[in-house]
Amino acid sequence: MEIARVATECLPTGGGAVEEAVERAVRLLRDGQTVALPTETVYGLAADALRPEAVVKIFEAKERPFFDPLIVHVPGVEWIPRLTAASAPVNARVRALVERFWPGPLTLVLPRTEEVPDLVTSGMETVAVRMSAHPVFAAVVRAFGKPLAAPSANRFGRISPTCAEHVCSELSGRIPLVVDGGACLHGVESTIVAVRPGGMEILRAGPVTAAELGEFGEVELRSPAAHAGRSLVEAPGQLASHYAPRTLMLLASDLGAARGASERAGLLAWRSVPAGHAFAAVEVLSASGDLREAASSLFAKMRRLDAAGLDLIVAEPVPEDGVGVAIMDRLRRASHRAVEKGSDVY
Questions:
Q1: What pTM was computed for the model?
Q2: String of b and e for 269-287 (b: at least 16 CB within 10 Å)?
């Protein structure tokens, strides 16, 4: 795919500069351009969700395959009946979920209306919708007045960006504007839930946990094996290999065995650095064992290891409790290349 080169501008939002950044972003969006914006999860690459000629620029900049659908970010709940066409029982559950979790890191997959372009949903009969809690993103989408399609602002399959610098390293020269809203709060992408008459299915784990969703009905968490066995992607972030560094990555409980004879191996540790380790570089997710802290720093620390000139990254598993489910989901997908090569991984 040939990428048109453009001048990329980065606008800060500190020191009262939010209004100028919002105005600049909205002008570009109304002109059919793409803009990188901060959300509470990761930075997103936004375009007018209702204009296919704008949405296609997201796919081009990211080199994203057209079979991978996009999340639609809405300015307000009044857009739900315009974009979705669920049954009355499903809508009742949707209202309860929205009241509890929106704005926030929860994406709902529902039957779509004809107002949603096929390009956004990859031709499927469902659409993924969410409402961001980040004040900058919220200000932009409200001023724009229409939904924004906004997947993560990185090249396809790569580590998701959690600060403006990450976006520039991925997409500089490909998009006209990055709005710098500082580091993202959660650090992993939103929880994606398909809402159905009988309950809910988590299609992608994220900051909103199964236990929290369980207050609103029966919840099923789709396993990675279930994703692999399906021919169609139903929501973003479902491909087996995703969120991956350039450096080969192994997810392993036995750190020494995984490191092997590699002289330039790095370690993504859960809580502490093993005594007498021989790793060339080490990043610790959370010395206190706080899973939310680990989630918020996950992608940034993966990026640091990826930039360290290593020939291997060994990642230590974290407990699969709460948001730990989302962390392990990202680590498994990031290490999928190693699984394909037949490595002995966790």
A1: 0.90
A2: bbeeeeeeeebbbbbbbbe
Instruction: Give backbone dihedrals phi and psi of 233, rounded to 5 degrees, phi first.
Output: -80, 130
Provide DSSP, 302-329: HHHHHTTT-SEEEE-----STTHHHHHH
* Placement of tokens 């969703």 in the chain: 213
Structure-token pair, residue 331: 């680590």
The Cα 29–Cα 310 span in angstroms is 39
Yes or no: say if 241 and 333 are a contact pair by the CB < 8 Å rule: yes
What is the H or E stretch that residue 284 is in?
A: strand 281-284
Cα separation of 99 and 318, whole Å? 31
Q: What domains can you pick out in the chain, each with its CATH number?
A: 9-228 (3.90.870.10), 249-340 (3.40.50.11030)
Binned average pLDDT, 10 residues per bin, the chain of 346 residues: 66 83 96 98 98 97 95 98 96 97 98 97 96 97 98 95 96 96 96 95 97 96 59 64 86 85 90 87 97 97 97 96 96 75 39
Asked if 312 and 257 count as a contact pair (C-beta separation under 8 A), the reply is no
Write out the two tokens for 38: 């901060």
188 by Cβ neighbours in 10 Å (0-12 / 13-18 / 19+) ranks as buried
Closest CA relative to residue 153, chosen from 234, 47, 37: 37
Q: Which of 176, 174, 121, 124 is nearest to 151 (CA)?
A: 121
Residue 304 phi/psi, 5° resolution? -60, -40
